[in-house]
Amino acid sequence: MKVLTRRDFLRTSGIAAAGLTFSRLGFDLTPAYVYAAELRTELRIKGAKETPTVCCFCSVGCGILVSTDAKGKVINAEGDPDHPISEGALCAKGASSYQIAVNENRLSKVRYRAPYSNTWKEVTWEWALDRIASNIKKSRDKSFMEKNADGKVVNRTNGIASVGSAAMDNEECWLFQKFLRSLGLIYIEHQARI
Length: 194
Prior knowledge:
24% strand, 8 strands, Phosphorylase Kinase, domain 1, single chain, three-stranded mixed sheet, alpha+beta
């Protein structure tokens, strides 16, 4: 006569409990009928142009496929299954990235708040870009160092720093680095390291 060990008892009772649970759920293993096929509706992304891009929320760099219609309007955004980093998976922020482009609450005009002011005013792109360029030039001219204390030529700007964005792809990062280095910046950081 075989002695029933505690391990055998637990194994047997676990199998019996699982079998009883599954039998009560009413599983039907016959092939399911697809009701969506009856509607004969076309997908809203049928014929849309798919453009691969990178998620803009964090430094992981997940891949997103953005679908646009013939007019260039964003109609869908989803994870890119061919992307080597995320393989189609997105976090909650990445999955909601569609709302970045399609959102009636998104600002569509440039706004400016003057120093020490508590109100914003709408300005044109031309004014804003001229203002940014003017401030960069003013800060660069004020903090530019041609030679260090040892008399070596360094040609650097100590008054401007940059924090890069995870939403930039390699080509954009390369161009941005060239621009920053041409200004003489040495304080260059990236979001992924912070």
